[in-house]
Amino acid sequence: MNVKFLLLTMSVLLLAMGTMASAQTLPPAVADALTKAKVPQENVAIVVKEVGAKDALLTLNAANAMNPASVIKLVTTYAGLELLGPTYSWKTDVFSTGNMFGSTLRGDLIIKGTGDPKLTSERFAAMIRQLRDRGLDDIQGDLILDRSFFENVAYNNAAFDGEALRAYNVGPDALLLNFKTVRFFFAPSLDNKTVSIAPDVKPAQLEISNRVKLVDGPCGELRERILLDVKEINPTRVKVSFTGNFSRSCGERVWNISLLDHARFVGGVFAGLWQASGGKWEGAVKLAPTPANARLIASTESPPLADVVRDINKFSNNVMARQLFLTLSAEAWVGNIKEPGNASRSVQIIKEWLAKKNIAAPELVLENGSGLSRNERISAASLALMLDAAFRSSVMPEFISSMSLLGLDGTLRRRNKGETLAGQAHVKTGTLNDARAIAGYVLDQNGKRWIVIMIANHANAAQTQAAQDALLAWVYSRPA
């Protein structure tokens, strides 16, 4: 082991172990909550440290490698803000080849993606309107999709938990459109006799069968009352069937469903929107890089990264986090070129970035940067060092404001609502079946700001919310 790495590793150990002699035992309310949850303290890691302080106030198993679930998004988003900059944005460009004859393009239309995490159907439709407004009516060629910004890697949507249709399982793609998801809106029809099912975007391949009955009574869970069946009839036809009961008392409900692969989804949405706008096109969808002689004819740009990280952290968006994670390597120079983004290079870039901050994090394991992983690991000590560094960073305002404000918004909008603690903590949550975590900053009643981290890895981890709340309350109520 070289001297530099030894010194970096010691920075973690000093926080994790060097303060243990002075660190208090767990506050009684926290210990009692863990006991009631039947989660042993050895399955929990905690760090409480005032921002900028050398020593921690409280540590428990701080050096242990833990699965932080979605809390790992803090690493991805902080790295993104510093390495790409808070004003960074993603562009999606449209090119053409061939020539225009009046309103007819005798050539191909190319859509080139650069990993935009927030290319919504609305922005995609606006880009199509650009083409129509500029006089393009008929495309006598193919639709070419350039997805080369990210490395082409096979992805199995069902690999994590077998739920291939769930929106959170969508894999990353350089040309991600609408999160590769159709949002179905359920509501009583205007005459209050039937159920209306309307998609926010309709790929040309999509056929909807509505066999849902409108009934009276309590609403209940949508997925428990309605049966979903998705059948791929052939490569150009997908049938989505809904059967069951929908109560009038439900009002409007939403069901997000991931359909088709990325290429067919983009091609299908384009075909549907192009036809709806009055345009003509009968070509094929093909995958290829943008030709050197292609002409730029339209474009759309994402919101700045500072806005995107708010969506990632406040709402724990796995798909957007994975897009940012791969963008880190796609935008990194390798010699005098840029190579397609891939996970292994993004891991290397993040580890090198942390090392420059004297954060060794030898236990850090990154798989996709989103926390939707059985393998990702980090210690509470490494997280604390990173959060301390983030508070001294020029991107501190953007980073902190991206976390949920306790009791007010994001994944924590219902927690501690109406209590004194509400609004006094910016926190990221993490949730898996056997992992629960929080990490962020608490402003205590005396105006001091604290880094607070708690990670539980146990079969009963879901029962540790009371312990989390007790820890946050204990930090907030610190005496002067």
Model description:
The protein has 480 residues and is an alpha+beta fold. It folds into two domains: 3-87 and 305-476, Beta-lactamase, CATH 3.40.710; 91-301, D-tyrosyl-trna(Tyr) Deacylase, Chain: A, CATH 3.50.80.20. The protein has twelve helices and 23 strands. The protein has helices spanning 3-18, 28-37, 73-84, 121-133, 222-225, 262-276, 305-314, 318-330, 343-356, 380-391, 396-401, 465-476; strands spanning 44-50, 58-60, 91-96, 99-101, 104-106, 109-112, 138-139, 143-146, 181-188, 195-199, 206-215, 226-234, 237-247, 253-258, 280-281, 285-287, 295-301, 333-334, 337-338, 404-405, 425-432, 435-443, 449-457. The strands form six sheets. It has a six-stranded antiparallel β-sheet, with helices on both faces. The radius of gyration is 25 Å and the shape is globular.
Count of folded domains:
2
Mean pLDDT: 94
Per CATH, the superfamily of the largest domain is: DD-peptidase/beta-lactamase superfamily
Strand content: 25-35%
Q: What is CATH's topology name of the largest domain? A: Beta-lactamase
Oligomer state equals single chain
Helix content: 25-40%
Terminal CA distance reads 43 Å
Low-confidence spans: 3-9, 16-23
Q: Order of strands in the sheet with the most strands?
A: 2-1-23-22-21-20
How would you describe the shape? globular
CATH architecture of the largest domain: 3-Layer(aba) Sandwich
Class derived from helix and strand content: alpha+beta
Task: Give a quick account of the main beta sheet: strands, pairing sense, barrel closure.
Answer: 6 strands, antiparallel
Count of β-strands:
23
| Gyration radius, rounded | 25 Å
Number of helices: 12
Level-1 CATH class name of the largest domain: Alpha Beta
